[in-house]
């Protein structure tokens, strides 16, 4: 039975991924929650509670729960994320610390603990949920600057993913970095981006739609793409893709760093 770990499974994309894997036969899902309690789980879901990815012990918490069940993992997806709005006039120290610890530092410690605990078998896959906002190449004058912590913490995650892919290559563990698409979630609503949900032809998708696309992408993801940065749903929701990369781009789209 394949075992899937979803880090950050309570809302948005993480919850969509949990539902998508739940619909697959013979799949067991471990879903982390930051709070100490969780909603009632289906038979093939185990919640790992009290996991704050911005804290150093997050990996230990996950390892101890999975080890206590005597399981190993086939797929690990780190989806947890936080977006704090900033501008040049109001950069925010505390928000930046939260974004970097959540997006770029936490994943290193979680993946390292899982691998060192031998919870990932050869052939397993690690997917780090980044964003096209982490691509330096895709930044373009049409969208301006600002949101330093959001963009830069995802750029740092991209670097982390590349380095981790090199560290676990000889174990035959594939590491992918993905932009899941622009989604109608609390994250985008919380920073006022819901005003763009319907702009330019309904570009924002539900987290369930994004999760379905990501799960299909993960099915095809293997060592041939390890250390790479991909947009499974292609360029349509990436406003700077055409101005920077040109027309007639494929789906899925490999993104530039
Ligand atoms: N939404 C988009 O358009 C978009 C675009 C590109 C990339 N992404 C990326 O996609 C991922 C999911 O985004 P989303 O829109 O689904 O976000 P969301 O709706 O705001 O959900 C965020 C999830 O992350 C968890 N989380 C946040 N901080 C955490 C922490 N310190 N420790 C543990 N869990 C934590 C939340 O748990 P709680 O319930 O405990 O808060 C929640 O489950 C993020 O990495 C995001 O950067 C999103």
- Low-confidence regions: none
- Tell me the CATH superfamily: NAD(P)-binding Rossmann-like Domain
The CATH level-2 architecture is identified as: 3-Layer(aba) Sandwich
Count the helices. How many?
Answer: 8
What percentage of the residues does DSSP assign to strands (E)? 15-25%
Number of individual domains:
1
| Mean pLDDT across every amino acid position | 96
Estimate the global geometry from the Cα principal axes.
Answer: globular
Give the helices and strands as they follow along the chain: EHEEHEHEHEHHHEHE
* Secondary-structure content class: alpha/beta
How far apart, in Å, are the first and last alpha carbons?
Answer: 35 Å
What is the CA-based Rg, rounded?
17 Å
Q: Identify the strand order in the major beta sheet.
A: 3-2-1-4-5-6-7-8
The main sheet comes to: 8 strands, mixed
Number of strand segments: 8
Ligand identities: NADP nicotinamide-adenine-dinucleotide phosphate
- The top-level CATH class is Alpha Beta
> How much helix, percentage-wise, in residues?
25-40%
């Amino acid at each position: 039975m394949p075992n899937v770990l979803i880090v950050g499974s309570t809302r948005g994309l993480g919850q969509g991924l949990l539902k998508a894997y739940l619909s697959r036969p013979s799949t067991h899902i471990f879903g982390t929650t930051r709070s100490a309690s969780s909603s009632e789980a289906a038979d093939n879901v185990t919640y790992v509670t009290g996991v704050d990815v911005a804290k150093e012990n997050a990996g230990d918490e996950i390892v101890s729960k999975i080890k206590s069940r005597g399981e190993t993992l086939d797929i690990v997806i780190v989806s947890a994320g936080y977006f704090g709005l900033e501008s040049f006039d109001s950069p925010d120290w505390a928000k930046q610390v939260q974004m970097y610890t959540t997006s770029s530092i936490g994943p290193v410690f979680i993946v390292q603990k899982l691998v060192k605990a031998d919870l990932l078998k050869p052939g397993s896959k690690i997917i780090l949920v980044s964003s096209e906002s982490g691509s330096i190449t895709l930044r373009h004058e049409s969208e301006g600057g600002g949101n330093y912590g959001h963009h830069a913490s995802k750029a740092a995650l991209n670097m982390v993913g590349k380095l981790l892919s090199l560290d676990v290559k000889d174990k035959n563990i594939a590491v992918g970095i993905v932009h899941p698409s622009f989604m109608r979630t609390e994250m985008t609503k919380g920073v006022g981006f819901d005003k763009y949900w319907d702009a330019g032809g309904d570009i924002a998708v539900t987290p369930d739609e994004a999760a379905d696309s990501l799960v299909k992408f993960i099915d095809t993801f293997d060592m041939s793409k390890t250390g790479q940065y991909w947009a499974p749903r292609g360029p349509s929701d990436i406003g700077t893709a055409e101005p920077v990369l040109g027309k007639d781009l494929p789906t899925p789209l490999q993104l530039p760093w």
